[in-house]
Write a structure and sequence with these properties.
- This protein has 122 residues and is α+β, with helices and mostly antiparallel strands.
- The chain has a domain of 84 residues.
- The protein is 19% helix and 50% strand.
- It contains 2 helices and 7 strands; from the N terminus they run βββββββαα.
- The protein has a 7-stranded antiparallel β-sheet.
- A hairpin with a 2-residue loop joins strand 4 and strand 5.
- The termini are far apart.
Length: 122
C-alpha cells in the first residue's frame, strides 16, 4: 500500500512555520487536570522518510506550538526545531530514550512508552 502524501504546514512559536509533504502517522491528546493543560501530539512521516513530531499545548486561551524534524543520515540522527540543527549518533539517541524509559540495552522502547515519557516531561 502506497502512502498518500499531502502538503502540511505546522505553525511554530520559535520561528517560521514548518512546511513539508507528508502523512499523519499517529496522534494523541490528553488533559492534565492539575495544570488545566490540554496537550496534543502528532507524528508525521514525510515523503523523504523523515519524521515530524508536533506538540500543541493549550492552557486557557493560550497555545504553544513546537515541531521537531528527525532525519536519519547514515549512523547519525539530525534533529531540527525550526531554528537549530543538532546531530548525534543514532545509537546515542536510542541510549538516551532507553535510559529515560528505564529499559535495558537489549530492549526497544515502544511508542506508548515514549508517549508516557512525554506526558511525564510535559
Amino acid at each position: 500500500m502506497q502512502k498518500k502524501f499531502e502538503s502540511v504546514n505546522l505553525p511554530q512559536d520559535n520561528g517560521e512555520d514548518l512546511t513539508f509533504r507528508g502523512s499523519l502517522y499517529s496522534e494523541c491528546s490528553w488533559f492534565d487536570e492539575e495544570h488545566k493543560q490540554l496537550t496534543k501530539q502528532k507524528l508525521y512521516v514525510t515523503d523523504t522518510n523523515e519524521q515530524i513530531y508536533y506538540i500543541v499545548r493549550s492552557v486557557g486561551g493560550e497555545k504553544s506550538h513546537h515541531a521537531f524534524r528527525f532525519a536519519v543520515n547514515g549512523t547519525n540522527c539530525v534533529i531540527n526545531n525550526g531554528k537549530t540543527n543538532m546531530t548525534l549518533p543514532f545509537d546515542m539517541l536510542m541510549l538516551v530514550v532507553r535510559d529515560l524509559c528505564g529499559l535495558s540495552a537489549s530492549e526497544t522502547p515502544t511508542i506508548s512508552q515514549v508517549e508516557e515519557l512525554q506526558i511525564c516531561n510535559a
